[in-house]
Amino acid sequence: MIKQREQWGSKLGFILAAAGSAVGLGNIWKFPYLVGENGGAAFIILYLICVLLVGLPAVMAEILIGRTTQKNPVGCFRELSKKNPFWMGVGLLGIITGFIILSYYNVIAGWSLGYIIESVKGSFHNMENPEIAGELFFQNSTNFKWVLPLHAGFMFFTIAIIYSGVNKGIEKASKFLMPALLLFIFILVVRGITLDGAQKGIDYLLKADFSSVTAKTVSLALGQAFFSLSLGMGALLTYGSYMSKKDNIITSSVSIVALDTLIAIFAGFMIFPALFALQMQPDQGPALIFNILPVMFNSIPGGYFFRILFFILLSVAALTSTISLLEVITAYVVDEFKIPRKKATILLGVIVFLIGIPNALSFGVMQDFTIFGKTFFNLFDYIASNIFLPLGGLCITIFVGWFWKKQDVVDNITEGSKGISPIIINIWFYLVKFIVPVLIFLIFLTSLGIITI
Ligand code: PHE
User: Fold this and answer.
1) Ligand 1 binding site (Cβ under 6 Å of any ligand atom)
2) Cα-Cα-Cα-Cα dihedral of 119, 125, 130, 136, to 10°?
3) In the structure, what pLDDT confidence band is assigned to residue 355 with cuts at 50, 70 and 90?
4) Is the pTM of this model over 0.85?
């Protein structure tokens, strides 16, 4: 007997689950360090432009494809393109990207799990200097006996949730965890900006200096917008496939994008004022939040508990994203190969864990093993965020703008969106048809050095 496809219990459930996918390490771990490495406010402004002009319209397009067909990424394109192999390949690219991202994302998620343990142990107690925290981070992240069990542990949690079905698990958890996350970040922002010497950090986030912006910065900002919005690889498409036709794609997309962007900006305000107050350098790369935050908590009453809570929430934010990544791959395998969900989940989880091992070791024993001058970890991240996700987004928007009948597109997006003016729908459609693909394409060319700005 074929089980009926599950659906979200409510519109809010969908929004929070999709926002749960979007909000994750990308916001709290990656966005701040990209800001720190790429000139502060100028990067933030570029990022916001990318989100508004490219991200939001593309989010709507991706959810629309999923909701219309109620299928996995490959199945969606098979149905809409009448089995055209190119478009089915676009769906498949999404699945491959899912494997790649999950295999390194899970490693960082594992670190945050490890930091819950460090926090409980009181490892940061009396650490006044983030450099000492940096040493601990170095010791841990280079030690395979630390990284590999955590990588496995986090994958275990991810598998466990997907194994027991998405809807009740993810939806219920997201409804509770997302507001908690928001509240908690807010508390940390207030603490960060009220520290002595925080002003320099606030200036860093607000005063834009475009002199150091290059083509690479623009392409990083676009890549980050895609990564942070979970866009371009079928995650939103898959979540959209569980969405009821009665729900409003436009307002849901706006909420998801707004939540994601807000949390990224908040994460900046949580970290940089504290960073400057502690007189550290902003360009520390992936180690940034693991060095600054643990120490910052020492200046907060009840810091011991806040620190534990912070890493729990970071892990939870990561978990609601890893779930969505594993769900994309699982939905594909279940739909296309008719493998039972539980079997597929375990099999895929184990495969991703294995692919992730070189990523986990990239900071230690395999740190000198480089391809194109990048470690496995950096290469995977670069290929996924800066090439595959924008490429996926490009193809998805081209499909909606040029290969799907306009009337069908408009009818489908209007379904559940009663009361939204046709002018808005038209603006969206033309953004998707012309502006979004052209911008992505131009940014691609600049990042490849074919045109220069
Ligand atoms: N958006 C997630 C984050 O910011 C990462 C992610 C990318 C999740 C792509 C799913 C798909 O952490």
Assistant:
1) 21-22, 24-27, 101, 227-228, 230, 233, 235, 321, 324-325
2) -60
3) very high
4) yes
